[in-house]
């Protein structure tokens, strides 16, 4: 009102002076506290709290209840609570119920300054205020604890809200140099030419409204702006793999041009993306291709305001070469001038294999390699991205949900790099239809979404899963005979994982199964995949005898020379959650065994292209027949299983099958016992039971007799192969007889059948 009065009274100068006073004294931080050689300021929100409570008047103690009420009335902390998934009404009720009390002012100020120093700041904001209150006021700490809010999240959410408000307030200061330098000029685009042919084979990305989250690659976007604006002859080559942020950078530059926030020399530039597919479809010969490219480049030069975007330059050069054309030589005269600029992209392999070796490419283009953003900056980045998404959706993210998005995107989303993986996940969440409380996206919503997307169980276990985990040994023994130790260690590993007690930087579990063939090593993995991972297809099996020598190593992780991805890399991307079974591990090459040292210790390996491939959500089982003779002899003589393990491990080490380092990396080395007559009968019973289930689906009942079980146990056992031939024996003998009876019409739907003694003897 005072401002309006001054204007009405005609005192424009007085009004401006008042506005300047308000700007410098309220919105801009002022020095309030000085400690030694350091000066600390307070921001607008803290100034309101201090003025409301008379904080800066005298040295009396702080009235805690009055201080909380001033924080509530200031309004900013209410937004912080919303970002934490809490209600401001709860805070108001807490203040009303609070018994009051006092805090020492000098001690409080010292704590505020110490908090600033910890975070390398000199401005005291709402995050410092509530952080110190959390430490000093135990009733406030208890209030937040009951809401499941810890100090770290409290300060983080407060900092986020402060950043949002700071950005909004900065927009008010239009007279500052940073804003004035980016005010767009008028009618600067009237002097540029038309581009009919170029428009047919390109897309103008400056004009499209696709959102670009500048925060993810702000540094690179501004670096490109700086390079292109300083010299008309500058061209950029962005080098990064798919999903690492190349498109974000390009869209970011286009967005700055579109919104008039670019450097003056780049105003009214048009960024056009060449449609390589259309060009290839229209040109079948070298002459046609070169003629069209020259026509496009001539138009771009004539226009005078074109930034040409060429995605996958390495493939474009290769395609032109197949037509007999040198694409770089074709565009060199144009890009060497100042009338047209270009931004090209390439993946890492294409750049290092071909483009980096071309003198013309290195001369024409300034290379910008996109690196993964530092982990500590990721949260700040997705806070900004979340604000952008919230403006176009009807959803709001809590601070804890953002932290969970970062965690699960890094851990469970396979393709791409951080923080782009988190950005994409935020986008998907905003439009997924999930929201725990109205339009608010909570931690539980993030976990539910990831579970649906990857089948990886997150959050609290449901009753069905709890029952399975607590009784996993019993359920596994319905399919696996004996081998109690193996069943026990695997079950305990999965229970630790779901209880959140395992090392998250390693696989879910890693086990080396030692024992003779046909005793249940592979069947254990299959049963576990079916029971816990919801299907045997969740088990990926590798026959390690196929991965010997240098070629075997390349086959597993990929080849830089050919660009072929490795089998292991591909399978992990396809199924990041499941069981990976490495049969006969001892037959693989030394390089692969060394690779397993890293996989078992750190939970990832680096493939041929330099990408980290994570196996942290997999259960790794390796099998080996090493030491089988020792196992057989010692168990036959009545030795204890622990004695057998020590003897076998010593023998395996001495034979050089596995190094001591590798054996120690496994969570457990499990000895599988040879099966005796009693165990073979149980195996036969289980396998025949599976066949009975198949017949049930055709409404035919097969009665299993003791004679049939004993016969199958006898004919299905081989001293060398163990019980492995048993399934084949059932298929050839038992199923064969049943199949003939069905085809002859002797066995029909609704019938009950039992093998006669003669039929059993003839099996």
CATH topology of the largest domain: Rossmann fold
CATH H level, superfamily name of the largest domain: P-loop containing nucleotide triphosphate hydrolases
Amount of beta strand: 5-15%
Structural class determined from secondary elements: alpha/beta
Compute the separation of the termini in Å.
104 Å
Q: What's the CATH architecture of the largest domain? A: 3-Layer(aba) Sandwich
Helix content: 40-55%
Provide the spatial order of strands within the biggest beta sheet: 6-8-9-10-7-11
Largest sheet: 6 strands, mixed
Would you identify the regions where 5 or more consecutive residues have pLDDT less than 50? Answer: 1-25, 186-191
Rg, alpha carbons: 35 Å
The outline comes out as globular
Please, how many domains? 5
CATH C-level of the largest domain: Alpha Beta
User: Can you count the helices?
Assistant: 38
Number of strands: 22
Query: What would the average pLDDT be, to the nearest integer?
Result: 86
InterPro entries: AAA+_ATPase (IPR003593), ATPase_AAA_core (IPR003959), Clp_ATPase_C (IPR019489), ClpA/B (IPR001270), ClpA/ClpB_AAA_lid (IPR041546), ClpA_ClpB (IPR050130), P-loop_NTPase (IPR027417)
Keywords: ATP-binding, Chaperone, Nucleotide-binding
Protein name: Clp R domain-containing protein
Domain Clp ATPase C-terminal: 675-760
């Amino acid at each position: 009102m005072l401002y309006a009065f001054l204007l009405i009274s005609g005192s424009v100068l007085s009004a401006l002076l008042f506005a300047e006073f308000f700007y410098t004294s309220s919105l801009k931080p002022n020095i309030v506290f000085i400690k030694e050689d350091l000066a600390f300021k307070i921001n607008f929100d803290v100034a309101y709290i201090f003025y409301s409570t008379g904080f800066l008047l005298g040295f009396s103690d702080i009235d805690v209840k009055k201080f909380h009420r001033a924080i509530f009335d200031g309004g900013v902390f209410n937004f912080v609570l919303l970002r934490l998934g809490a209600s401001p009404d709860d805070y108001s009720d807490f203040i009303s119920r609070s018994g009051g009390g006092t805090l020492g002012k000098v001690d409080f100020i010292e704590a505020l300054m110490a908090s600033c120093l910890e975070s390398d700041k000199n401005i005291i904001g709402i995050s410092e205020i509530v952080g110190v209150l959390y430490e000093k006021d135990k009733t406030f700490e208890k209030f937040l604890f009951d809401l499941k809010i810890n100090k770290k999240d409290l300060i983080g959410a407060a900092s986020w809200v402060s950043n949002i408000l700071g950005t909004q307030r900065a927009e008010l200061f239009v007279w500052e140099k940073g804003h004035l330098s980016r005010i767009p000029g008028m009618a600067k685009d009237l002097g540029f030419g038309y581009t009919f042919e170029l428009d047919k084979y390109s897309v103008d990305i400056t004009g499209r409204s696709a959102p670009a989250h500048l925060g993810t690659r702000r540094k690179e976007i501004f670096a490109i702006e700086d390079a292109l604006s300083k010299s008309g002859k500058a061209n950029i080559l962005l080098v990064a793999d798919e999903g690492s942020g190349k498109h974000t950078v390009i869209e970011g530059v286009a967005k700055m041009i579109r919104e008039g926030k670019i450097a003056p020399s780049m105003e009214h530039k048009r960024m056009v993306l060449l449609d390589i597919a259309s060009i290839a479809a229209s040109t079948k010969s070298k002459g046609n291709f070169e003629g069209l490219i020259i026509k496009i480049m001539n138009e771009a030069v004539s226009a005078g305001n074109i930034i040409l975007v060429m995605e996958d330059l390495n493939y474009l050069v290769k395609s032109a070469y197949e037509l007999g054309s040198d694409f770089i030589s074709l565009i060199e005269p144009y890009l060497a001038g100042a009338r047209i600029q270009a931004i090209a992209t390439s993946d890492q392999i294409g750049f290092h294999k071909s483009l980096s070796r071309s003198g013309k490419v290195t001369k024409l283009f300034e290379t910008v390699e996109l690196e993964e953003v530092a982990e500590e900056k990721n949260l700040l980045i997705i806070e900004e991205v979340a604000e952008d998404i919230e403006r176009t959706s009807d959803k709001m993210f809590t601070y804890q949900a953002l932290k969970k998005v970062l965690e699960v995107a890094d851990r469970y989303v396979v393709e791409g790099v951080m923080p782009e993986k988190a950005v994409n996940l935020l986008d998907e969440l905003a439009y997924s239809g999930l929201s725990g409380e109205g339009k608010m996206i909570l931690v539980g919503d993030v976990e539910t979404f990831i579970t649906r997307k990857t089948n990886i169980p997150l959050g609290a276990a449901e009753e069905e899963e709890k029952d399975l985990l607590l009784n996993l040994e019993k359920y596994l023994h319905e399919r696996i005979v004996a081998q109690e130790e193996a069943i026990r260690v695997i079950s305990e590993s999965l229970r630790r994982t779901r209880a959140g007690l395992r090392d998250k930087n390693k696989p879910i579990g890693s086990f080396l199964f030692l024992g003779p063939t046909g005793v249940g090593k592979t069947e254990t993995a299959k049963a576990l995949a079916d029971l816990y991972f919801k299907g045997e297809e969740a088990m990926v099996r590798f026959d390690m005898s196929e991965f010997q020598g240098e070629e075997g190593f390349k086959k597993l992780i990929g080849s830089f020379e050919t660009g072929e991805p490795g089998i292991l890399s591909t399978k992990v991307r396809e199924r990041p959650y499941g069981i990976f079974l490495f049969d006969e591990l001892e037959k693989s090459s030394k390089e692969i065994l060394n690779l397993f040292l890293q996989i078992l210790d750190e939970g990832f390996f680096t493939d041929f292209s330099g990408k980290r491939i994570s196996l942290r959500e997999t259960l790794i089982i390796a099998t080996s027949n090493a030491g089988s003779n020792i196992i057989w002899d010692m168990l036959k003589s009545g030795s204890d299983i622990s004695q057998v393990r020590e003897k076998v491990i010593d023998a395996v080490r001495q034979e050089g099958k596995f190094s001591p380092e590798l054996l120690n990396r496994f969570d457990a080395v499990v000895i599988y016992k040879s099966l005796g007559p009693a165990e073979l009968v149980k195996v036969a019973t289980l396998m025949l039971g599976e066949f009975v289930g198949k017949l049930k689906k055709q409404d035919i009942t097969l009665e299993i007799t003791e004679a049939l079980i004993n016969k199958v146990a006898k004919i299905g056992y081989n001293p060398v192969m163990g019980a492995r031939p048993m399934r084949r024996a059932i298929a050839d003998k038992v199923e064969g007889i049943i199949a003939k009876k069905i085809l002859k019409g002797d066995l029909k739907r609704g019938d009950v059948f039992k093998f006669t003694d003669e039929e059993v003897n003839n099996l």
